């Protein structure tokens, strides 16, 4: 982390030159608004984070259990420790994002994620080699420790920095059209996330789980970092542009609606400390965190949940396809609506459908309830994909968006860490996931209570 913090100050002139906003081309010289390029790059960055997301890890879960000899609860706990640890690092990552800029951070996150995937692909062999060297009867304990280390790195680089950098960058380039841009992004993100388990499952069928991770490591570590360096720019102002591609009228934000301080330009935004003092921040964060917890728990154990319902793996994983269709349509609609209406009712829609969808997942063997789960998870997933990009910049401005998003992302990552362990505990104690899914379906109801009480963002 010290290296990251000092790189912008001590890097040699040639390296600094490569990360100048005008190199290798100047965005303000293009015949169209560069924000649309940022939209495409941001979408690409979030999709590239899938191997570091639970939905990308889920299809590798049973393979890791086989080669390491760990129990499902032990693997879930390793994922829990790794994810919580990575989440605690994200506020620092958010502050570095504000300081170093999105372009450098996206390159570093992509390379980091690629190296992590390569490490995880051979972690079981490393554990076996170390066990033989130490003359241990079993390699399970060492495998557990190595997986914890791998999950820390995987979640920090993938779910954390790659995702956060992409989303916050999009929020800096759009204002009046932010919801529309986020909705367009949500079309591809929702669909990509939903079909990822099916794609990875078939990929594994061709190459095997180990070579699938290695091939993803090459694509992300080299390809994504190169695209990120070429296309990402931190904000329109550094490129001589303005948000939405227009010259906006001066608009003052009265931060007294947030912290009681004097009026300031909206572009400046509020500090992280000011944002953390508001109910709005915690209501939004809890609403998104419940989605992260429940969906992460479900996707991590999706194959086993389907097995309990009497469904084969291919049929269980295929449930994400109709979810993708619903999420895609809803994500775009929510994006358009967020430019025209208050965010509070949109969060309410997400909470209600999440509760219904999670409860219905407990009965996948019933066709009608399986489709209700598709509807609930599809609608809530579409809302989540868009609202995570829209809410923070609307409420708190852009100046400290990375630092504020870092705290929120920490909360989401920690919540996502709890999901697999909670469901694994219910399965181990009660022999099924049913009660665990029912318990998780109550969480969005609690979050809805906070959402109802939060105020409006500036300008609404």
TrEMBL record:
Source superkingdom: Bacteria
Membrane-topology descriptor: Multi-pass membrane protein
Predominant location: membrane
Keywords in alphabetical order: Membrane, Transmembrane, Transmembrane helix, Transport
Transmembrane stretches, start-end: 33-58, 78-97, 104-121, 141-158, 179-200, 212-232, 279-302, 314-334, 346-365, 371-392, 404-426, 432-454
GO molecular function, one term: transmembrane transporter activity
A GO-annotated cellular component: plasma membrane
Name this polypeptide is given: MFS transporter
Species for this entry: Vasconcelosia minhoensis LEGE 07310
């Amino acid at each position: 982390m010290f290296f990251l913090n000092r790189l912008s100050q001590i890097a040699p002139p040639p390296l600094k030159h490569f990360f100048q906003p005008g190199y290798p081309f100047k965005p303000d010289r293009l015949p169209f608004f560069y924000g649309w390029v940022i939209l495409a790059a941001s979408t690409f960055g979030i999709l590239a984070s899938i191997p570091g997301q639970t939905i990308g890890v889920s299809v590798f879960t049973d393979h890791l259990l086989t080669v390491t000899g760990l129990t499902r609860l032990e693997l879930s706990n390793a994922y829990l420790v790794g994810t919580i640890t990575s989440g605690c690092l994200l506020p620092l990552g958010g502050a570095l994002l504000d300081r170093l800029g999105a372009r450098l951070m996206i390159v570093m996150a992509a390379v980091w994620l690629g190296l992590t995937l390569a490490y995880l692909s051979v972690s079981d062999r490393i554990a076996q080699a170390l066990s033989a060297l130490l003359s241990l009867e079993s390699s399970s304990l060492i495998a557990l420790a190595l997986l914890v280390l791998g999950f820390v790195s995987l979640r920090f680089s993938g779910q954390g920095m790659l995702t956060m950098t992409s989303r916050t960058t999009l929020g800096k380039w759009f204002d009046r059209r932010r919801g529309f841009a986020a909705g367009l992004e949500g079309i591809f993100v929702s669909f990509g996330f939903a079909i990822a388990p099916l794609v990875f499952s078939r990929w594994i069928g061709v190459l095997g789980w180990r070579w699938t991770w290695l091939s993803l490591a090459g694509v992300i570590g080299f390809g994504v970092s190169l695209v990120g360096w070429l296309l990402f720019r931190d904000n329109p102002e550094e490129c001589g542009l303005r948000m939405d591609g227009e010259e906006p009228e001066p608009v003052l934000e009265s931060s007294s609606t947030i912290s009681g301080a004097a009026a300031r330009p909206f572009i400046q935004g509020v500090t992280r400390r000011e944002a953390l003092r508001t109910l709005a921040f915690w209501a939004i964060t809890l609403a998104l965190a419940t989605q992260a917890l429940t969906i992460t728990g479900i996707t991590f154990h999706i194959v086993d949940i389907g097995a309990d319902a009497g469904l084969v793996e291919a049929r269980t994983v295929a449930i994400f396809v109709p979810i993708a269709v619903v999420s895609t349509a809803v994500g775009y609609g929510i994006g358009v609506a967020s430019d025209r209406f208050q965010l509070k009712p949109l969060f309410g829609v997400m909470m209600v459908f999440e509760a219904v969808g999670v409860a219905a997942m407990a009965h996948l063997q019933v066709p009608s309830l399986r489709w209700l789960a598709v509807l609930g998870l599809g609608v809530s997933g579409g809302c989540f994909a868009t609202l995570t990009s829209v809410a923070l910049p609307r409420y708190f401005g852009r100046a400290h968006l990375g630092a504020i998003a870092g705290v929120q992302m920490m909360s989401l990552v920690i919540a996502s860490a709890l999901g697999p362990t909670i469901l694994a505990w219910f399965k181990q104690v009660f022999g099924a996931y049913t009660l665990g899914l029912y318990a998780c379906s109550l969480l969005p109801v609690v979050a809805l209570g906070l959402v109802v009480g939060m105020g409006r963002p500036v300008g609404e």
